[in-house]
Amino acid sequence: MKFQKTLSIFFITLAFSNLAFTSPAYARIKLVTLPDRENTMVRLDNPQATLVEEERILNLHKGINKVDFSWKAVHVDSDSIRLKIIQHPKDTRLINVSYPPNSQSLVWDIYSPEARQEKIRISYLLANIDRLVSYEAITDKEETKLDISSYMILRNFSGESLGPARFQLDYGEGFEKSINDGESKRMLFYQANQVKISKSFTFDAGKHPWEPNKQQTNVGIPIHYVLENNKNNQLGKHALWGGKMRIYQNDGHDGSIFLGEDKPAYTPINQKMKLYVGDSRDVVVTQRKTHHERKNIKRNRNNQIILHDKVETMQVTIENFKDKAATINIIEPMSGEWEIIKSSHTYKRKHQQQMEFTINLPAKGKKTLTYRYIVKNVKTI
Amino acid sequence: MRHFISTAFLIFGLGISNISHAKIDLVTLPDRDKTQLTIYNSADLTLVREQRTLTLKKGLNRLEFGWENTLIDPTSVQLRAPRHAGQVRLQEVSYPKGVKGSAIWTIESDIAGPVPVEITFFTSGINWHAFYMGTLSEDEQHLQLQGYVTIRNYSGEDYENASTRVIVGKIHLLDEIAALARRDTPYNKPDGSRGRLPMTMAVGAMKQKAYREMDMAEEKMQMNDMVAPKDIIKEGLSEYFMYSIAGTENIPNQWGKRLPSFNIKDIPIRNLYRFEAERYGNAAHRLVYFRNDKKHQLGNEPLPDGKIKVFREINDKQSLAYTGQVHSKYIPVNQEVELDFGAAREVKIEPVLMSEQTENYQFNNKGNISGFDRIQQWEIKLENNRDIPISVEVWRNFSNAYWDIDNARNNKGKFHKVDIDSVKYTVELPPQSKSTLAYTLTQYEGERQNR
Hints:
The structure holds 2 protein chains of 2 kinds. By secondary structure, chain A is mainly beta. Helix content of chain A is 0%, strand content 60%. By secondary structure, chain B is mainly beta. Chain B contains 4 helices and 28 strands. In chain B, the strands form 5 sheets. A 7-stranded mixed beta sheet of chain B has the order 6-9-4-3-12-15-14. A 6-stranded mixed beta sheet of chain B has the order 21-18-17-24-27-26. The termini of chain B are far apart. At the A-B interface, strand 9, strand 13, strand 17, strand 18 and strand 19 of A face strand 3, strand 6, strand 7, strand 13 and strand 15 of B.
């Protein structure tokens, strides 16, 4: 291995009979060999921590061998270090682990019944090494399909350079790579073409101003693309990790424009990924409350109102200034014991505190949506 | 073209085991064949597309890409070979330790020889904005509107013979490109340092200085007259609108460029004076309206947000008077444009409370007041001191939904209830005239709201 090695095993072998009980474990005399790593596996399946498993071949003497494992300036979680005997698990035994003072190292006492080679596997959590996922996607002019390229970015700031190592993800075969300490690498990971997307606009009456023409600047209506992580879309083989996705659009002139970027959430198989692309200023939503009254007033003995019903009428005007049809979701926050009395369009009760309309507007179209609702049993005391 | 990519592009052969920094068989890349800039105005972002010809060998090729002293986001760099799709792949980009502003690319090629490739990346430091010049006719019934596109380059890089496109639209970005360009490690380090980086002071200060210099350069340019008019091709893409400037442009670092986009004469306009205390304070605002549609000789494209410098023709078109500078929002096709010229001096609108009474008191069981009616007589005094007829809009907002209004019969104009707590009066006023809008407002307090 040609990389500088900071993570190292030194070993000291002393025949059991020769070992004076008083000789301190950390008296590192007589370094015998410096075995190379045979196989290194880096498991990147847990976003919280990276597990490294490496195999080495030790030339053990008969009796107790002291194997010194040190990780100076390498971000190893010392509590996580494990040792496994591979070749002769029945009679090669780990007897003892000791930690010399003030040093990033430990000493394993390994007993071998005879002088022989032994394969061991050392596992530990290594910090400051991880992977990111990023995506580059390009949509067609009609915004119905997306070609997605996924990249994996390995970042190694662990203090240790990893020679050819097998990087294992939470699915698939993994891949072999070398990565030096302090290095980042971006690799093309997979591609999925012609992924179906649906585009929608969302006005949220709980978030957006109701009277956009009274605002100093344009009110942007968020645009989303939704795609499904399934087989029909050349996806669905594994969960899609969250990561920055940059979305471009074919400009029809052998080039592209950049539409925007988002960081979608981790998306399991057959689940939907929602991407916030940008804001439209060509869709304008104006909301007004046009009626309010109290009904069924109930009073206590002091003649104070303790209970009433509230009846209100809401009017939402949606204008599409685009020359393309648009699907607009109108989210209305609700509260209490509400019920719709009358509505010009069908609505969906999303949950107790929200309902939603889905309005399809033709190009250059305008629609007015009105609904009347009652909130029962509003308590005032 | 100065330093950056051209000199920092080196190809070196692979197959040498001690690859890391040994640049053996260095090959310098030829210059850019073509450059295209796509400049955004809602964020400090420009998409650069370069065409170059790489001489590749079959198998793996290594190439160094440098971006030091530029404002390029290294994570955005992509390579494509459009004429050899699928045969040339950018397999890996490595950012080695301690090498700032440089990356090693591994390109796998199925073909040997010269290959035209396209390299795209984001840079910050180039921006554009829309600017308008408006000229009102003497009777203020028409407006001439001239639109311009102004591009400014403070990216540290000269762009020569670049085909230029500008984009109107509101883009969603997670990170500022200028901040990405300044990172020590392009993807940051694991833990703590992840995520959004604030723009460093240095970048901010640098920008400010650059902007100031740009302003000066722009003024100089205006004095030296404008460049020859060029065609601007306009088209809509997704939620964006794109202006492609015909031919190519030279945009040296620190320079600005203003290109005329359109010139429309005689747009019929509507003048309106609006009073709404909650919005404008105690003065009526002067507003000018026209619609971005065919009727108004517009409607071919949305109008990007920008400043409008407005003048008025006077003395039978012999001279001009400066009216003021206003800001226009982005205006989609078919939407009405509202230009707010601010507080009007010649038009006065004053709501006057003439009298107030209370009545219909209600008491609770303890004998305290639990409700009453507040009755107010209002007169809104309107004065048009201009020599042209005007339209006036008066908005009145109330604090709740419990009120009744009784308008005087001899009020001129129209009354409209807008929603549960606001009303609107619209009146036409002849030149040099006065008028009064009178109404009685009953507001129900406490228990009386449940009458």
